[in-house]
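Hi R.,

Here's the chain you asked about this morning:
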Amino acid sequence: MEDRWLSITEICKHLGVSNDTVYKWIDKHGMPAHRMGRLWKFKKDEVDAWVKAGCAAQPSDKIAGSDSGRPKNT
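And here is the predicted structure, written out as tokens:
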């Protein structure tokens, strides 16, 4: 069995999602990814296990539509 590192393009194609979605999952949902220089690399079996565990569906810490993190008008 081939166990090579996948690029962002390959993992997006495998999961059927956009680059932006994968970057959001890495940042907000702890998607298993490994930074190699300026590139992100992925192990297919790690990502598949993460998806099967339902981690991609976990709500993020921020509430949709909230203004947290935005400057207040004072």
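One quick note: The radius of gyration is 15 Å.

Cheers,
M.
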